[in-house]
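FW: tagging you since you asked about this chain on Friday. Here's the raw sequence from the shared folder, copied in full. Didn't touch anything.
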Amino acid sequence: MQGHTMQGHSERFAQAVAHALRWLRYRDYSSQELEQRLQRRGYTAEEIEETLAWLRAEGYLSDERLAARLIERYTAEQPSGQRRIEQIFTQRGLAVPALEEDEETRAVRALQQRFGEPPPTADPRQVARWFRFLLQRGFEAETAQSALRRWNPHIKEEL
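HL: got it, structure written out here
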């Protein structure tokens, strides 16, 4: 691919690129996700590989950039458990990252972001709600219990 222009490429290549760029306009996709979408549109393996290579060379497609954005989203913006993070990365065809921060710290941050400062007293219904929230974010039950106690020391031991 000299100069990474589309001149000299087939009409099918131009169509594949147009489809991919339309999809990428709305959200980031991994190489695997775009490959699957292009396959469903009937493109050959060679056409798909050529399209993905062009998109990478032009900076439209980067699994590394997508992975960095997902790590930021699921560790800082919407802190989530390892199980949820692994599921998302696997579904999108990305390597599961090794995270620097421990799970419990992310769980406490999730509680702080969602519920703010803990109340001085906590009834069992509130505690159950907080616990369910952490489970939905993909935290293990044991981690959720530890994080709840760390976030709100007023919670009684019998969680």
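FW: The mean pLDDT is 91.
HL: agreed, and The chain is about 65% helix and 0% strand.
FW: great, closing this out.
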